[in-house]
Input
Amino acid sequence: MTVKLAAAAMVALALMACRAEPIASVSAPAPAPARTAPSGLDLVALEIRSGGRVHPFTVEVARTSDEQARGLMFREALGPDEGMIFPFQPPRPASFWMRNTLIPLDILFVRQDGTIARIAANAAPMSEDSITSGGEPVAAVLELRGGRAGELGIREGDRVSWPG
Output
C-alpha cells in the first residue's frame, strides 16, 4: 500500500509543478538570435531563383560605408554557399574593384525589384580595374565565390531575395 501511496504522491507533485502558460506567449514566436560572422557582420539567408531552382546562400551584410569599403578584402577563402551583400538605399549606380581581394569573385548587381542586372564573373584578384553596374542604379551588389554563378546556371534576370 505504501508503494501506491508514494506513486500517487509523486504524480500529485508532478501535476502541481505544471502550470499553463498564457496563450499569447504560446502563439508569439521567440525572436531568432542574431547571427554574426567572424568578421562581426550580420549573417542573413539569401536565395537566388534561377531556372526553376532555388539556390540558398548565407551572406554577410556590409551596411556601413566602412564595411562596404573593406568588403571581402584579405579573405583567403569563401565557401560555395557564402558571400557578402552590399545594400544601397537609395539605389545607385555601383562601381567595385578587387584591391586587396585575394580570391576571385562573381559580382552580381541587383536591381530594386530583386532581378540581377549584371554579373561580372570571376573578377580577378588584386585588380584595380573598375567593375560597374553599367550606369544602372542597383539596390545591392552580391559577391559570391568566383565561378559559382556559372556553376549554378545563375544568369542576368534571375531573382535575388534576402531580408532587407
Q: What stands out?
A: The first helix runs from residue 2 to 17. Residues 10 and 16 are 10 Å apart (CA to CA). The chain has one domain: 30-161.
